[in-house]
Amino acid sequence: MLFLVVQIFSTGLCQPGKDNTNVCSFKEDLIRTVRQAEQTLCFVCGNFGATITCAEAGCDRSFHLPCASEGDCITQYFGEFGSFCWVHRPHQAVEAAPAQDTTCIICMESVGDCRSYSTMVCPSCQHAWFHRACIQEQALRAGIYCFQCPLCRDRDWFIPDMVTMGIRIPFRKPTWEDSDSYASLGVRHRHCDASNCLYPHGREQAEREG
After folding, report:
1. What does residue 11 show for φ and ψ, rounded to 5 degrees?
2. Coil, strand or helix: which one is 169?
3. Of 13, 80, 142, 209, which has the fewest Cβ atoms less than 10 A away?
4. pLDDT of 62 over the 80 cut
């Protein structure tokens, strides 16, 4: 899975089409990209093998996908899957700044006294502050159908802003619907738990209604 994601973000690597010509071209592009990466240094860790280059024209900063967060880089999981180094990465348009002692609405830890790569705010209410890592974890759990601002529940402004800032939102239902965590909510309790049951037909019997 990681290899597929790296292919998507790799500079100059097109996606294969349906005809054989495009498939052959894709294989050639893949080989070329791998060989080029073998000679490209990651500006974050300093090792070779960097396949991603900043999308800003004229910028030659390259990095590994796993090094993106450590280097304050942003990778956008939509459109042309653009990647940006720490110098050219997009910033939230809101001018709000966290007040003193503001905490992350998700983990309740301090978010500091200013916006940064690791600190973000809801563009709609501008009161919900959270860490990048915290909102990313929430996005992975909620999926596109349930992802929203943890405070004001906005989606119209919140989701476009989050994906622009590099938050990956999977196109699937939330993870909590994949388990039986809430199965008990659909089960009706049919046993009297009172120490002295007064129902004439016994504690194992239940009325159809009420």
Report:
1. -65, 125
2. coil
3. 209
4. yes
Quote the DSSP letter at residue 176.
G
CA distances from 53 to 46, 128, 198 (A): 14, 32, 75
Q: Which amino acid is at 18?
A: K
pLDDT at 209: 60
CA angle 29, 74, 9 (to 5 degrees): 15
Burial of 56-94, coded b for 16+ CB within 10 Å and e otherwise, reads eeeeebbbbbebbbebbbbbbeeeeebbbbbebbeebee
Q: Which domains does the chain have, with CATH numbers?
A: 1-89 (3.30.40.10), 90-210 (no CATH)
Amino acid letter for position 116: S
> Which is it for the CA torsion 113, 94, 119, 146, positive or negative?
positive
> For 72-90, how does the pLDDT look when each residue is reduced to its tens digit (9 = 90+)?
999 999 888 899 999 999 9
Neighbours of 154 (CB within 10 A): 16
Residues 42 and 26: their CA atoms lie apart, in Å, by 24
Structure-token pair, residue 112? 């500091």
